[in-house]
């Protein structure tokens, strides 16, 4: 099927609402023509409006009744205890969370909320915050070829994910896209309980054997907005007005779509998702407000129903900002815990706050947190000098070749109207000063614009029909030096070409948020990295005549991992979410597929480390046979919660629905949480850390440790061998760490521990920092 819809294709022959501001958001714009290759939906300012009755979320733990109606009735009784009547309770209620866990959202005065907070059944009270929405080449780059290179590849062993259901919590879906075609699909899985709702320009007929579920949730957001979202600016249905949800869904599980084209990009290639025969269930909880906004209340309801409906994996490309509040870590962590405890892996982005330390979000150990890397693909424009010397810049310029034209250099805007006409402007963009923009150059008769910038500087939006090219500072300085030796200088600019392969370095995206976790620095985050920049995905038909577009961000890397997780669930149906995470982390690559070390995209050109990419770049074929795994269950997660002093024994019992579940003893250390990494942010002396591994490889096997100690630290492992057999498939080991030569507060240093049986190399990252004085400025 050709994936290109006609520009007039709309649902049910109706006209779409006015085009959204998607094209203005950094994530929607091509990476070389965007305002900033940080690439995430802009969180933007919160609405200044403060409602008289704000929405509050009350979390009560695990359900006490199997009947959801009884659960809802118990919520109304709690509200009634403060509001005085059943009528007032019903009027106040926004949502009852009664499937996957117990809780409710309600419109209350602040004083009423504070009173309810003291109710003995309430574990946590949250204000209804706003969250932001955070391919063709991707799968070949990761070695998952559509055409089999081996009959034993994960993609083909799992029949491309057939039978798996990927739930997506996002901005909706454009069901008419070729990515959601169901040709050749078998029956819908018997365990599926969901449905496709009928609403604004969407009906059950828009679903099929590919898209098997579609719901939407808006009450939480509307309750906190001064002007409610309506059908003139959005689809009040599962239909996607923003485009983000359609892109995420197609990346995770899009069907095969041939002859993909975008401005000549990837012409003739095939686009598909990671698990192209998996089913999709869309839960629309994010809306086209300020580029993409979701309320916590709506997201919780989406989780609640997804758990009930029977999804196998949840892809949730939303999150707040770790740089603004620590409350962000509760926003999706609680419903995600209930999903994971029921065997549903939850995959979420590390965030798009950029390369600042401790900017990573979604840091709970039960969430699979994804960083973004580039692909081995570059969109390059050739600049030719009169002596035939050439320079490569980055651009998506699609217009005709610009023949030899005068070029002039500038570092400011002061006299642009006097120097621009008939020339190409070479503009040095330095630091925070807003650079010269293409529209100013065009307005003053300029022929083209070349930006010379440091890798860490922001970019501006560039049209594809005007030469707007980026050069890094080194190349730009070389060109500038040459120009200064000539009385006049002319250059030729060619349309862009796509460069693919080993010569294009793979990097952790500048936009991808970094560790360590500000909420719990002893838990390594992110967990894993996947391609998230310049992914070719479907685009909803608004005012553009193309259905495919290039998108970037950790929210695009997230569904890459979600698709892989779906394949692993099919291949290993008994693996827990923690085992799946462990398999991904311990087999990940520190290099790109060509063997080159991953670096970071930014101003310092450094080699990437665990705070950039977690375990490394996903290696899906290795992940299906990891050898050993680090498993966790609800007891491990309770250990984590209790270490944060957020929970008492009573709250833990309510959360799990089991009176026997309590916080571990005070002597239990969070450093012993069985995560596939070791992170010690406050080392003063010798520390012993324990881990337990489970053998999922050959029954009789012997593993020996290989230690790459962080610089200046001593790392010793005991025992020196792990011997597995029929009766011993789970063994513990101890890692003893000491500061070694360090005697002052240090930065983090990185290393690794690998258990090897000469067939499997099971590697976990080690991140260590000393803290002899409780002042990090010393």
Automatic annotation (TrEMBL):
Name of the featured protein: Uncharacterized protein
Entry annotation: catalytic residues: 170 (charge relay system), 244 (charge relay system), 555 (charge relay system)
Region feature (Disordered): 1-40
Domain Subtilisin-like protease fibronectin type-III: 672-767
GO molecular function: serine-type endopeptidase activity
Keyword Heme: no
Family: Belongs to the peptidase S8 family.
Sequence ranges assigned to domain Inhibitor I9 in this UniProt record: 55-131
Classification of source organism: Eukaryota, Viridiplantae, Streptophyta, Embryophyta, Tracheophyta
Biased composition (Polar residues): 1-10
Keyword Transmembrane found: no
Residue stretches making up the Peptidase S8/S53 domain: 161-593
GO biological process: proteolysis
Highest taxon, organism lineage: Eukaryota
